[in-house]
Amino acid sequence: MVSFCTEDSCLRECTESTLRLADLQLAMEEASWSIRPWDSGSFGVVRKLQDALGNHGHVDLMHSGLHRKNVAVKKMPNSWVASGPWEFDEQNPEAEEKPWCDLGILWELNRLQFPYTCQLLGIFRDEVTTYVVTSLATEGDLFSWAADDPKPGLEREALMVPIMRQVFSAVQSLHDLGIAHRDLSMENILLTRDADGKMKVNIIDFAMSTISHICKGELRGKVVYRAPEMHVQRAYDAFLADNFSLGVVLFGTAVRDYPWSSTKPDACKSFSYVKQHGLRKLLEQRKLRNGNGERLIEVFSEPLFYLLEGLLDLDPRRRMCLGERAAKQTNEVQSSVWDSQWLAQASSRTDSTNSGGDGDSNPDVATFPEEVEAKPKLHTEQEGETSEVTTASPTEEVILAEEWRHTEDYL
Question: What would be the CATH architecture of the domain defined by 142-410?
Fold first, then answer.
């Protein structure tokens, strides 16, 4: 039986209004005012989790005597973070990653009791370093999850569904709050078990986020995940750009591979092929990485392919939405991920299991987070992250990322 967390009412309450610029500015200021002196005796390093290259630092797994549990600690130089958001913006007006934006949004999401992110436990500082202490994602990131068995196919898809439902619900709720993430990736989606043993998704790293629905001339995110309209010097819908990134997340989680190495015009043969012939034709040509010669179109179920095709539509006007309020308020008719057969089948199964009746497979706001089936893990916490596809650390997951890079070999 699938069990549920009970955060639905919290989500509905916290997404009733959107985050205003004044709210974000105040949250960043409050975060900066909360900084406390770093007491090294209260924290013991267990091991390094990952680099935080965009913030000139790294993240450690540490045991906190202050909190009496293991925590994640992001370490960044004071020379980069500055004393607060205003000084940072003055010193780094063109920065793509803004640590105080990350902290401000996380501060506000915690205040709203938003369930799909980590808990900010404190911000500390010594003479050299700023330390951001957050709750630890016990099961690592989605990239680590994707590195494990089962092999791509129906069994794997069945395990993916409850995870992706939470991911879609989380990002839908962020959009309803007025937040576009702009750096969604498998590395920025964490999995953790709560005190009751239920698996939950956490969205992290809001350093590239914005509360502007429409953006122009701002290229954000990892190269593989960027929506193609970001490369064009005209305004783009940041919510729909996020949805494109989720399509890449869904693709990578399903087959442990990327659909392309870049969405920049003429930079990747696979992406150029999709532009000319469509996604289905690419999958008919590409073979499953480390498979037995099967084509990707044979590996994806048809309902999953339909969902991928909708999220990865190169025309944002036709791209699937997440059922956000903003999408419903437009005159354009957009299909929603919640209308997809791939999610609806799982929704009907879990609804009948819990209530014995018909359920709503197209919720206005995120449904209850579902418990994800446990499966064998290579690691219990995340051990590596790439800020771009061309960066790697010597861990098993990131070595896999290195292998994923050369998608041209499979065309």
Answer: Orthogonal Bundle (1.10)
